[in-house]
Amino acid sequence: MLLNSYDSWSPLREVVLGSADNYTSHARELSFDLFFHDETPYSRIYYPRHVSPGAGTGRRSPIKQRYVEELREDVEQMADTFAQLSITVHRPLPLDAATGEVHTPAFAAAVVPPLNIRDNSIVFGDEIIETPPLVRSRYFETQFLKPVYAEYFRRGGRWTVMPRPMMTDASFDLSYVAEADKGSLFETITDPRPSPYDTGFEMMIDGAQCLRLGRDVFVNVSNANHALGCDWLERHLEGRFRVHRLHRLADSHIDSTVLALRPGLLLVRTPDVAEQLPKALQRWDMIFPPEPEDNNFPDYDDGDLILTSRYIDLNVLSVSPDTVMVNAACPELARTLEGRGFTVVPVRHRHRRLFGGGLHCFTLDTVREGSGPEDYLDY
Ligand SMILES: NC(=[NH2+])NCCC[C@H](N)C(=O)O
């Protein structure tokens, strides 16, 4: 089918589901530590928090083989669940075990598999946009999606790549983490190294920073890199979509903070978050998920890097305005949604905190029913 996706709730016809193959480690360097900065209270990132790119690809934080295998098992079951729901599933090329690191003029980085598909691409109607990544090891992630995107292009879809950043240390605006670190015990990231390719702050933004509501798109902007990305989106989408900025609703991604379940209904992390939403969204009805419990998550060792907050299971995927895929590890959330009239499709996803993403992050909804960008803000 032709690319057609304007929101996160219309009946789902086609989806891209990430690949977990060969996700064996996290490369600890400046861009990684910056990106996961807000999650460090939950994990045990030891000092020094990062090494500069001059020191190669940084330290690797290995992921236990057992978790990688269990992740793979869960992701393959997600694919089966989509098939049972008659939703076409597209898969990226899996990362080959022999692929080492990539080198650009400005940096070298390890490669991670295309797992959190939500992050580096976004669909606006009949157009797929590859976004400029925030983490160096994800620089070439959309390469694994070439066959899928090329097929949508052949069928008549638009296919756009946003400008790629140089990604030297100086490309990153550190103000968000500098402010967050004030008075805290965390080591501030203060030692960016100069590079001959420095060009000032660059455009870097992830698809997962956007909330798509038909004609209106809300974009989380928490630093100068995001602001440039949002400027680009605004100019590119002008006349087709209305872009609105959310100021620091989260560090970057917002899909474990706020999600739209159908017109007029949001799933929101907490009432505090609700207060920060723009007026137009505050008029919508809201569901607040029950506070996640410790026993919703596996117990990990000190060496296992935890990359998400406890709210990660809010990251559900809507199959239609009344059916939602929910992590089976979160029965409280399932009950809450059922209480509001939703049909819940439980899906097993054990290690979302180790791999930085829930069901929404692992997927990209490329085809949903609906024929154009509708105006939902009058609800
Ligand atoms: N698209 C994504 N990868 N989203 C994941 C966001 C996770 C968020 N930082 C949290 O810890 O709750």
UniProtKB/TrEMBL annotation:
GO molecular function: amidinotransferase activity
Matching SUPFAM superfamilies: Pentein (SSF55909)
InterPro entries: AmidinoTrfase
Active site residues of this protein: 206, 253, 361
Alphabetically ordered keywords of this record: Transferase
Entries under Gene3D superfamilies matching the protein: L-arginine/glycine Amidinotransferase, Chain A (3.75.10.10)
Domain of life: Bacteria
Family named by the database record: Belongs to the amidinotransferase family.
Record-given protein name: Glycine amidinotransferase
